[in-house]
Every structure is written in structure tokens, then in C-alpha cells.
Inverse folding.
């Protein structure tokens, strides 16, 4: 597990915090602990990448409310919730809000470690996706205004002649711009070019 991956533990029960810290530290996993959701939110500015383990029921703010706050801030941190038997409906609601797993108390050590490994895999995938999105954004930024206009026409499903008419240029010039787009966006086909363009608009 990379040193940059940190498990953030949010629980108002000191015994649970100590138990999880010992378990994860023994497994060589860096840990940071917080006694409340509020203290965790206060540390977001210096948050290290990793995952979050939170109790679903806490006095100042529940794990579900914390998860909703993180979603509102667009923080894509994999979240594992810990729940008592009577809190399972709340834990299921947390899953619907984006938690990747919930673990019942008393929890088995292997269940925690398995969930953290799954969270690490999820975090890696999110990191790769973010890197890919940044690369595509950089390619889009390199396009000239006219190239963007041609791309908009292609995404709208317009033929070269139609795009040429709308922009007041020749169909041959549209073909040149189209070839430039394929090169700059690193697309192997027109369909791939359109998929890339549509994906960036969906992300926005």
C-alpha cells in the first residue's frame, strides 16, 4: 500500500479509534484519527488521499450527514461506514449516498482490512480517471476557436458541408480542421473524437 494512502478514522468512541489505529498501523497502513465529523471537516484543507472510515451514528453529525457534506464539496473519498445492528437501515442509506461498504459491530479485523484494500483500489481508479480527465482538458485547451467550432459541429452530427456553410468556410478547410482535431485530441477515429468530446461535457 503506497505511503500516500491514509485511512482517516472518524468515531466519537475512543476505544474504537484506538482499536482501528492499532489494527491498521500493524498492517503498515498510515492512519489519522478524528473524534468527530466536525473535526474531520475542519481538516479538509490538509486532507491526504486515502479513504474514510466513519461510525454511522455520532452525536454531533452522523456518518450519513458527513458523507452528504463530502458529496456537496465534490470530495471523492472512498467511505466505509461502521454500524451497530440497529443502524443497518442508516448504513444502507449511506451506501445509496456513495459509501462503498458498511461493516457491522463487532467487526472482524479481516473485514476492515479487506474493505480498506477495496477502498485503495477505488482510490487508484479515481486517481487514474482524474489524470485522464486533466489530460483531455489540456488537449481541449490547445484547440483554436475555429477548431472548437468544427468540433461542436461534429458533435452535433453535422456533415462537413453543413459545418462549412455555418462557418463560412470551404468543406476542404473543414476537413483540414477535422484532421487537426484528430491529431490534437489523440483520437483514432471520428467516433472516438466524439466520445471524448461528449465525455468532457458530461463531466462538466
Amino acid at each position: 500500500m503506497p505511503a500516500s494512502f491514509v485511512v482517516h478514522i472518524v468515531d466519537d468512541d475512543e476505544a474504537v479509534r484506538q482499536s482501528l489505529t492499532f489494527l491498521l498501523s500493524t498492517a503498515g497502513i498510515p492512519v489519522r484519527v478524528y473524534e468527530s465529523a466536525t473535526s474531520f471537516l475542519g481538516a479538509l484543507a490538509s486532507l491526504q488521499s486515502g479513504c474514510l472510515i466513519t461510525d454511522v451514528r455520532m452525536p454531533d453529525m452522523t456518518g450519513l450527514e458527513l458523507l452528504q457534506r463530502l458529496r456537496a464539496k465534490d470530495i471523492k473519498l472512498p467511505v466505509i461506514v461502521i454500524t451497530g445492528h440497529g443502524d443497518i437501515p442508516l448504513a444502507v442509506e449511506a451506501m445509496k449516498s456513495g459509501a462503498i461498504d458498511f461493516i457491522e459491530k463487532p467487526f472482524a479485523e479481516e473485514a476492515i482490512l479487506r474493505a480498506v484494500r477495496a477502498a485503495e483500489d477505488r482510490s487508484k481508479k479515481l486517481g487514474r480517471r482524474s489524470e485522464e480527465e486533466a489530460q483531455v482538458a489540456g488537449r481541449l485547451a490547445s484547440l483554436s476557436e475555429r477548431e472548437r467550432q468544427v468540433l461542436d459541429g461534429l458533435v452535433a452530427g453535422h456533415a462537413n458541408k453543413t459545418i462549412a456553410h455555418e462557418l463560412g468556410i470551404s468543406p476542404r478547410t473543414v476537413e483540414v480542421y477535422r484532421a487537426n482535431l484528430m491529431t490534437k485530441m489523440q483520437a483514432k477515429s471520428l467516433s472516438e473524437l466524439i466520445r471524448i468530446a461528449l465525455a468532457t461535457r458530461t463531466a462538466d
